[in-house]
Amino acid sequence: MTSIKILFTCLSDALMWFFICGWLLVVLTVIGNGLVIYLVATRSRLHTTANWFILSLAVADLCCGLSFFPPMFGAKFGFYTIDLTHAGVFFKVSFTFFYCSNACVCAMTVDRLIAITKPLRYVSLMTTKTIRILIFAAWIAPLVLFGFPSIFMYRGNPGYTMFMEISRVIIFQITPLVMFLVATCHLLHIALKSNRQTKALIAQVRFNHASGETTIQAPSPTTSARASTVLIVLIMTFFNVTYLGGNYRCICQLTELCPFTGAIRYIIYLVLIANSAVNPIFYAFLKKDIRRELRCMFSCNLSH
């Protein structure tokens, strides 16, 4: 009865939108990532190098969605009692999964960069062993560098706790940001160079045609390369937006120089949850092969 009374009392609370939006994002996270996991795991045509990275990311995002908001909701409405501060298990488990998601995105970015910058060597570089190592590293690094060490945080050891808090921000929030900036600048440089070479070839073709010589077909950037470039730019942009609030939260937590209460706290939390909900759209449903399998799945179900 106490939980029910609290629930009805909070229905009139101005921050009830946070819980409504939160559950909506959790549902989208479960449906989107669940679909990706099902399709990649069950469709042999989707067993490609890029899709193994997407499968790993989908599993990490599903864990993020289920480990972050639902426990927070249950504790808020008194269904059970858990510590929601940085000292509690809730923070340590949920952010370990968030950082696994970040690491999976980094691994996927490495794969796409190699595909664009070294297309002729891609098959020899991205072997099954390499893929397994990258995915394994994406999961084990957050556990080793944050998950296990975080057990000993906030136990009357302010020096160690401060070191761990600063380390996690640098390793899992700032380093990927820098990596994405460097990767995007490198890709833009390659794109501009390729564009200049293409224009020069087109000009040569036109000159040869005007001179009556045999023309050659001017190459154009492949759809795959363009799609991979756009994908990495989307990765960088959305990651930066997502963890801009997260970095602000960490600064406030460590220095107490800025407010982190009320609406600001809940907006930052919603953006973190939205990251796991939007990832399937960016990294999976925009891919032609996964879209094809989605259409096939729904069309086959409707035909039956």
> What is the 3D form?
globular
Q: Give the termini separation.
A: 46 Å
Total strand segments:
0
CA radius of gyration: 23 Å
**Average residue-wise pLDDT:** 79
User: How many H/I helical runs?
Assistant: 10
Order of helices and strands: HHHHHHHHHH
What ranges have pLDDT less than 50 throughout 5 or more consecutive residues? Answer: 214-221
Structure class: mainly alpha
Helical fraction: over 70%
What amount of the residues lies in strands? under 5%
Largest sheet entry: none
SSE layout and pairings?
Blueprint: H1 2-10, H2 16-42, H3 49-76, H4 89-117, H5 122-125, H6 128-147, H7 158-210, H8 223-255, H9 262-285, H10 288-303
Plain-language structure description:
- 80% of the residues lie in helices and 0% in strands.
- The chain contains ten helices and no strands.
- Helix 4 (89-117) packs antiparallel against helix 8 (223-255).
- The protein is globular and about 75 Å long.
- Mean pLDDT is 79; it is low at 214-221.
